Amino acid sequence: MLEILARHALTQPLAPALRSAAVDGPKYSYGQFALAVDRVAGWLRDHQLRTDEPVLFVAESSCHWPIIDFAVMLAGGLPMAVPPGTPDETVAPLIRSSRVRQGVVVDTSQIPRMQRLGCIDIFDLSPHVLNDLLATPSLNRSSRKVFEGLLAKGESSSNDDTAYLAPSSGSTGAPKACQMTYGNMRFFGSTLQTCLALTTEDRIYSFLPLSQARLTDVVLPLHCGFETVMGTGKLWEELAAARPTMMVAPPFFYRRLQEHAMSSPAGTEAAMRELLGQARYVFTGAAPAPTGLLDFYQEHGIQVLEGYGMTESSSLASLNLPGRHRPGTQGQSVPGVSVRLSPQGEIEVSGPNVCAGYWRDPDGTQRTLREGWLRTGDFGVLDADGYLQLLGRAQERMELADGSQFWPGPVEADFGSVPGVERAVLVGNGHRRLAVLLALDTDADFHPEKIRATFDHLLAAHQERMGSEVLASWHVVAFPFTVESGELTALLKPRRAVIHERRRELIQLLCD
């Protein structure tokens, strides 16, 4: 990928690459982006960054995040990024298993934490250091020599070389360090560029943690040569100003956008035009999207296309494409990738999108990668045309005390699609009955009696399907599910084991 950055710097040095959504925030052209990466990489080498070793990278998403990420790669390290809010109990096992001994921070308050977690060598790239290094890199005659050196370095990396380490989602256990290659990155960028006919005129708005959205929000724009606008937290204001031509986000984002548009003084239609009116492509993944949510966007002229992937498959395996969209599915396998089901119904994936394995975990690699096929741990259904429908992860399947089994997805999707609901989680695994825990959005405008009637209606509908003796009740929780509590992953997927442990007494009361 460094060679692609270098080519853009050589051929379109003034084209916009990275821009903060803040009016007075930093921005970098492709030439400036390449110079900044080279400068930071030089600083890391001068400070004795160890090559071919993991580098823990803890930073909020910003324009500087991709610069540091690529600089670590250029300096010979293997960046392993985690959001600053990730709990220690999630990060610590990852650091121990990967034997991480060095880290990069942009906030000095993170240094004691990194030391506590076992990082011996810490590279401080806080603002006063970065400002000196990145004082608006100026393009001049000597810049070409830098770009040519970057090009040579990038071209020397083979598709099999490890580029970075990506923590797996950790939704069903301790996260592992996925060994992502330069080939994975190149395949992701080239495949989507071809499938979607993306050009340098496209633009994406980035608001998710880049440790999870690196491929969609950094690698894809870089491969195609278009601009990434980095959000700073003012979501709706920034989204309207950014006018993205492409949007990639989990279903929870589209539910929040729906609620925002429906409560807009300008009216739902006007709000939708303002926020997504320029978008050519709108994608979602990470979890099946509720049908009612997709219908809402379709009614307003926006087709939200679902896809399927996981960290180990470069977040890409199957995808619905314009003209080949089948609602209720996660699409067909993308060109170059094969998707099949095991005899037990587990989704298996093969292709250049699959990671090389888990860093320093040969046993875990052998269990997950067999004869070129990735065992995803997800279960699904493939129809006669090859469209995939995701059911859920093996560990998510609920089993009651009498041995009967149920997937939580349909119940959680229906309850979670109700405006005003922030999160719906089905609980009761191992108990006599199941129940739905609901966290409400305290900022949402909804009528208590009306929302209770909606919950009762949904409960009755699912009781008819599952049996009233199976699905007992719904319950609004007093405290929300959060990443900080360990109950959600960085992509806001529920960590069911943690939820069952932290809310044990409530679950026993509802489900026994």
**What's the overall average pLDDT, rounded?**
90
Distance between the termini: 54 Å
Which outline best applies?
globular
Strand fraction band? 15-25%
Number of helices: 18
Give an overview in words:
By secondary structure, this protein is an alpha/beta fold. It has 18 helices and 25 strands. The strands form seven sheets. Strands 11-12-13-14-15 form a five-stranded mixed sheet.
Relevant terms:
18 helices, 512 residues
Please summarize what this structure is.
By secondary structure, this protein is α/β, with parallel strands linked by helices.
Write the layout of secondary structure elements.
Layout: H1 2-11, E1 16-20, E2 27-29, H2 30-46, E3 54-58, H3 64-74, E4 78-82, H4 88-98, E5 102-105, H5 111-117, E6 121-124, H6 127-133, H7 143-155, E7 162-167, E8 177-181, H8 182-196, E9 203-206, H9 210-224, E10 227-230, H10 235-242, E11 246-249, H11 251-262, H12 268-276, E12 281-284, H13 291-299, E13 304-308, E14 318-319, E15 332-333, E16 338-341, E17 346-350, H14 362-368, E18 369-370, E19 373-382, E20 388-393, E21 398-399, E22 405-406, H15 409-416, E23 421-427, E24 434-440, H16 448-466, E25 471-476, H17 496-502, H18 504-511
Parallel strand pairs: 1-10, 3-4, 3-5, 5-6, 9-10, 11-12, 12-13, 24-25
Antiparallel strand pairs: 1-2, 7-8, 13-14, 14-15, 16-17, 17-19, 18-19, 19-20, 21-22, 23-24
